[in-house]
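4.2 Preliminary Data

To establish feasibility before requesting continued support, the project team ran the inverse folding procedure on a target of 169 residues. The structure was first converted into the token representation described in Section 3, and no sequence information of any kind was made available to the design step. The complete token record follows.
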């Protein structure tokens, strides 16, 4: 253990390849790079509505498979993967409410993976929330702008995430 006053520690900063490339002359200004990135996101966003609809159809089909066979671990993993994907991409593309709904569904699916009992009503509730959140009227809204929906989903997560004890305590 080091004693107070020891000065043997040396702090150094690694010079990474990225940092060296960033310092090289040439290229474009930061503002121009941000503008180009925003332009690319805007261009992609026109196709995003179709993409999100496709993802929600696939998620819905996977959740329907789960309701028929709640013990299907592969379907549970697929549903979780879709939810994570929706959560991670939607905010960037201007759908913060979809990100919120996907995040709460991820928590529910994490609980199912941990052993909480599957409840079709919970997944149906999330799918209904997705359908609302992806509409033009709601797509730019944040959870705090629709407090009833946000509180309701958070409460559903809280109740449905209870994992029964295994009795091995």
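Position-by-position output of the design step:
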């Amino acid at each position: 253990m080091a004693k107070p006053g020891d000065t043997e520690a040396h702090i150094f900063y690694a010079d990474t390849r990225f940092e060296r490339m960033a310092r090289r002359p040439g290229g474009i200004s930061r503002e121009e790079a941000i503008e180009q990135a925003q332009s690319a996101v805007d261009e992609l966003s026109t196709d995003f509505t179709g993409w999100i609809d496709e993802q929600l159809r696939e998620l819905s089909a996977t959740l329907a498979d789960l309701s028929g066979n709640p013990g299907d671990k592969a379907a549970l993993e697929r549903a979780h993967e879709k939810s994570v994907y929706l959560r991670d991409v939607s905010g960037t593309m201007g759908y913060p409410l979809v990100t919120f709904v996907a995040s709460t569904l991820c928590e529910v699916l994490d609980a199912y993976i941990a052993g909480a009992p599957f409840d079709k009503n919970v997944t149906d509730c999330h799918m209904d929330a997705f359908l609302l959140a992806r509409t033009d009227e709601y797509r730019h809204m944040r959870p705090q702008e629709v407090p009833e929906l946000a509180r309701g989903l958070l409460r559903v997560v809280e109740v449905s995430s209870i994992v029964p004890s295994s009795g091995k305590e």
